[in-house]
Design brief:
- The protein is α/β, with parallel strands linked by helices and 413 residues long.
- It is built from 13 helices and 14 strands.
- The strands form 3 sheets. Strands 5-4-6-7-1-8-14-13-9-10 form a 10-stranded mixed sheet, sandwiched between helices.
- Helix 3 crosses helix 6.
- The longest helix is centred in the first third of the chain and has 17 residues.
């Protein structure tokens, strides 16, 4: 089986749009959560989130303004992150076999902002004023399609929509395409831009969101007994994956290796996890087995850890069931305590964090864990980042619909 390595990573996140800035803020316990500014939220139940402030794609992409206006915000995030990941990888996509270079991007919702704007246009000014660009802007596959067109890539091209597991499923599927010989290079990850009036009100009406309007930075608090829901965020995280020989032949700097992928379905409820975490446990076990490892070889879990009352307990139970006594030796932390929940993009950004953790041999912390839930009693790395010898990291992502996706990432020696 062919080996698959990471040669480039990039994020557009509430903690920054450069990987060095993002990693520094993640390790120093900074929060990217604050009051929302892109639209009037005075009448909303929830008035804060993980917003990408002052984002202008023209600051990052050398494209004409007309072309940038053809992209929904979630595609702009994806394009910026993909271009930066390719630049970091040092790969010359023009000189390679474009028929073996592909794109696979996840998004839970896609172009929600475009849907809202054109819906208003339809009812305010009539059907003749709806934009002819509406459909290609709102499609979930708009990110993968535009990235493929931008780089002229003609290999596998697809989009994944599995709610909050989307990016992790996308990376896992891209890993498989290279592993099985279908492709040599894949640009993969996830992007989301659901901080819109409909997105915010919809999640709030589900009672899924924290309502800690008086203290936004403390609102995302995984495994804390005072948690009251997740924090809605936006952004993108992208990786360049390559077959190992392909990367070595061009002298690439290899950052990490993807070695295992597992997924499962809860098959029980559209929004609530199995209380015992059975579905999540099956995905974790599948990823570890696919990597050819035993559970006690995992050093750190970058958890899904959304700060929801049900989800955090279920994930803790799942970890205990998979790892047994080793669960007490693991470091487990939630980057969402600082980033909020980027929905379909969360796995992309968090896998980038895992790659950095392997490179720096540092486990990022879980912030806001002041009063641990008695049912959540693992080592969640509270408050401060921790230096630790890391060889294998497990990344968890779980989504509405009962989707579970996990990856195992290995340090390259």
């Amino acid at each position: 089986m062919r080996r698959v390595v990471v040669t480039g990573i990039s994020v557009v996140s509430p903690l920054g749009c450069e990987i060095s800035e993002f990693w520094d803020r993640l390790c120093t316990g900074k929060s990217g959560i604050g009051p929302l500014t892109r639209f009037d939220v005075d009448d909303f139940k929830v008035r804060f989130g993980g917003e990408i402030r002052d984002f202008d794609p023209a600051d990052h992409l050398d494209l004409p303004p007309k072309e940038l206006r053809r992209l929904d915000r979630f595609t702009q995030f994806a394009m910026v992150s993909a271009v930066k990941a390719v630049i970091q990888s040092g790969i010359d996509l023009d000189s390679g076999d474009r028929y073996r270079h592909g794109v696979l991007i996840g998004s839970g919702i896609g172009g929600l902002e475009e849907i809202e704007q054109q819906h208003s246009m339809l009812y305010d000014r009539g059907p003749s004023r709806v934009s002819p660009l509406m459909i290609p802007k709102l499609m979930v596959n708009a990110a993968s399609g535009n990235i493929s067109v931008h780089f002229g890539l003609c290999g596998p091209n697809s989009a994944i929509a599995t709610a909050c597991a989307s990016a992790t499923n996308a990376i896992g599927d891209a890993f498989r395409l290279i592993q099985y010989g279908t492709s040599d290079v894949m640009i993969t990850g996830g992007s989301e831009a659901a901080i819109t009036p409909m997105g915010l009100s919809g999640f709030a009406r589900m009672n899924a969101l924290s309502t800690r309007n008086d203290d936004p930075e403390a609102a995302s608090r995984p495994w804390d007994k005072d948690r009251d829901g997740f924090v809605l965020s936006e952004g993108a995280g992208m990786l360049v994956l390559e077959e190992l020989g392909h990367a070595e032949s061009r002298g690439a700097d290899v950052m990490a290796e993807i070695i295992g992928y597992g997924m499962s379905a809860d098959g029980s409820h559209m929004t609530a996890p199995n209380p015992g975490g059975e579905g999540a446990a099956r995905a974790m076990s599948a990823a570890i087995a696919d990597a050819g490892l035993q559970p006690d070889q995992i050093d750190y879990i970058n958890a899904h850890g959304t700060s929801t009352p049900l989800g955090d307990v279920a994930e803790t139970r799942a970890i205990k069931s998979v790892f047994g006594d080793h669960a007490r030796s693991l470091c487990v932390s939630s980057s969402k305590s600082q980033l909020g929940h980027l929905l379909g993009a969360s796995g992309g950004v968090e896998v980038c964090a895992c790659v950095m953790a392997l490179l720096q041999q540092v486990v990022p912390p879980t912030i806001n864990l002041d009063n641990p839930d008695t049912e959540c009693d693992l080592d969640y790395v509270p408050g401060e980042a921790r230096s630790r010898s890391l060889t294998h990291i497990l990344k968890n992502s779980f989504g509405f619909g009962g989707h579970n996706a996990c990856l195992v990432i290995r340090k390259v020696t």
